[in-house]
Amino acid sequence: MKQSIIISKCLNAELDFHIKSFNPDKVFIIVDNITEKFCLPRISDIPSLKNAGIISICSTDNSKNINSLTHVWRSLSEQKATRYSLIINLGGGMVTDLGGFAASTFKRGLKFINIPTTLLAMVDASVGGKTGINFNGLKNEIGVFNNSDIVIIDTNFLKTLDSENICSGYAEMIKHSLISNEDIWSKLLTFDILAPNLNDLSYLLEDSIKIKEEIVKNDPYETGMRKALNFGHTIGHAFESLSMIKQSPILHGYAVAYGMICELYLCTIKVGFPIEKMRQTVNYIKHIYGIYDFSCDDYEVLYELMKHDKKNTANTINFTLLENIGKVKINFTASKEDIFESFDFIREGL
Ligand SMILES: O=C(O)C(=O)C[C@@H](O)[C@H](O)[C@H](O)COP(=O)(O)O
Fold first, then answer.
1. Local confidence band at 238 (pLDDT 50, 70, 90 cut-offs)
2. Pocket of ligand 1 (CB under 6 A)
3. 335 and 188 share a domain?
4. Which residue of 5, 48, 161, 232 is most buried, as measured by CB atoms within 10 A?
């Protein structure tokens, strides 16, 4: 399951080299309607991509579904992809997750390269081999662990992003710092992500990728400590699904940011996470991401959604909690009352 992650200043030369080394019979590029317009032109002159087939899907996360997947499988089939073909996923987390799953399942698996174009996909989605789609209103319900053969990261793509997408990816970077390293956490909490210096952000991004890479290397199939990377997601995914149900979707990173506020509250009441660090992080998150608009009427639905989290066992909702920054406790349960209290906390404060 080894995955090479290359941060490159010469994307085209790098990509051309790797495509040639795979010697595929055909190359397919999976894009969404946004990366097709703004990112594909950056690589389309590469000689080895001259006859590449382009497969385009819709860009929003609610398109990460069986219909888009079927469209990709059908396009591969109609354009006669073989097991010796190569897929390039050019896009954000939706494209790398869905494209990775399509590549992993079509004819039982083709080689694929991820070229993440959003901050979220660079630091998180394209790394570590979680591929899949949403199903039945639930996040990433169907999928497989399968690493792309290579990830090539070109931070120039950050220039194509709006502030919301930068902030969305940054939430996963905050998560990486919370689960691993107080120095990085301090740096992130003083960084102005609303008016970011992209050069400085590129350095922070490299640290963040290393954190994820190290965790995934030690537990690729999430049997243990990889669950650290799911901090904020037990509640975050429920917020994200609720927003889809209400037909006012929010970006994944925003859902994770709100999920982290609730789960940091659980960390303080359940495992003694220092209250001052919790306040600092919560204030920073609220300053960047604003508030999540929901009411007591949503609590039961959220709780039902959380019953589908992949870390659960039997009837127990399991969390990844933190005793302190970098001190991770996995498989920690919380009562329904505690969870509802954490919802009160994000809505009303302490
Ligand atoms: O790579 C992981 O492991 C993660 O949990 C990273 C998460 O940030 C990511 O959003 C992941 O896709 C969530 O996966 P899921 O298993 O909870 O669906």
1. very high
2. 124, 128, 130, 139-140, 172, 222, 226, 229-230, 233, 310
3. yes
4. 232
